[in-house]
Design goal:
With 297 residues, this protein is α+β, with helices and mostly antiparallel strands. 38% of the residues lie in helices and 22% in strands. It has 3 domains: 46 residues, no CATH class; 104 residues; 107 residues, no CATH class. The protein is built from 10 helices and 10 strands.
């Protein structure tokens, strides 16, 4: 990937460097970013553009979460308290120490990218609802629609503690515990029903290799559904301890499938049937119950 500086503009005592990341062969533009060059002691340093964008924003700290939100947003302290209670809950369940999180509430998806320093990224415009977790800095980006308690993104807090977890499990876990905003602003049951209809129309899809089923349409990523179902199977088999062992021993595809076979007792070749049957059952009963994991600890 190549980078080309598009412009350098002066703003107060700093310079804003706008540049594009692109493919020199296809000419596809992957991102247009803004970075600040600040002069200190006759030397220029590259710094984050974000502080300049949010200098008029408001800040409120509730428990371990510090919220930053645009001026006209009506902050809901009750939802913020619920978010902290949820963070404490998952830390208790997975035996982790709660850490400080910065949480940005932006107007919409376009605003999230802007606050992160992007004028453009390749995925912009693909959905009305989005959220992001910056695992390197413990930062959550949410829209006003998601508000103060985006449980899907808060769940990603545990990702750093399970470096040997298969990505499908981490993806599924965020939806499994995501409540009403499990995936793109919709509850998990909504996505399960859509995936169920798609699977019934596509019997050729082989879920014995669930990581390969990643595309349905712009509204639904089936990985959130299949990942959540597998998390549910693991929890049902041996509770939170089995789920944690799964997270600790599933990095490669081989380890992932071997754990399912040996520990979850799903025979090799039967995972496709197991996932499909569970998705069909949930869709028919019109109910997805993850109360068991919520009651842990």
């Amino acid at each position: 990937m190549n980078n080309k500086i598009l412009s350098i503009s002066k703003k107060e005592n700093d310079y804003i460097i706008k540049s594009a990341f692109y493919d020199s062969e296809t000419f596809d533009i992957y991102a247009i970013t803004n970075v600040v060059a600040t002069k200190l002691n006759d030397k220029f340093y590259l710094t984050n553009y974000q502080p300049k964008l949010i200098k008029e924003w408001r800040t409120k700290t509730i428990g371990n979460i510090t919220y930053h939100y645009f001026p006209e947003y009506h902050f809901d302290e009750k939802k913020a308290e619920q978010a902290n209670a949820y963070l404490n809950k998952i830390c208790s369940v997975f035996e982790l120490k709660p850490e400080k999180i910065n949480y940005f509430i932006c107007r919409d998806c376009e605003d999230i990218f802007r606050v992160k320093g992007f004028d453009y990224v390749l995925s912009m415009g693909n959905g009305k609802e989005c959220g992001f977790f910056d695992k390197y800095n413990n930062i959550i980006y949410a829209t006003a629609f998601a508000g103060e308690n985006h449980q899907h993104e808060i769940t990603h807090f545990i990702n750093n503690y399970f470096p040997n977890a298969n990505e499908l499990l981490l993806t599924g876990l965020s939806a499994y515990w995501g409540e009403e905003n499990a995936h793109k602003g919709k509850p998990l049951l909504y996505s399960i029903k859509r995936v169920n209809e798609y699977l019934k129309n596509h019997p050729e899809i082989d879920l014995n290799k669930p990581n390969e089923f990643w595309k349905l349409d712009e509204e639904t990523n089936p990985q959130y559904v299949t990942g959540a179902i597998i998390c549910d199977v693991a929890f049902e088999k041996g509770g939170i301890n089995t789920l944690k062992r799964f997270l600790n021993n599933s990095k490669s595809e081989e380890e992932f499938l071997l754990f399912i076979e040996k520990e979850l007792k799903v025979k090799k070749g039967d995972l496709n049937k197991t996932i499909r049957q569970r998705i069909e059952k949930i869709s028919t009963e019109n109910k997805f119950d993850n109360a068991k994991i919520k009651a842990s600890h």
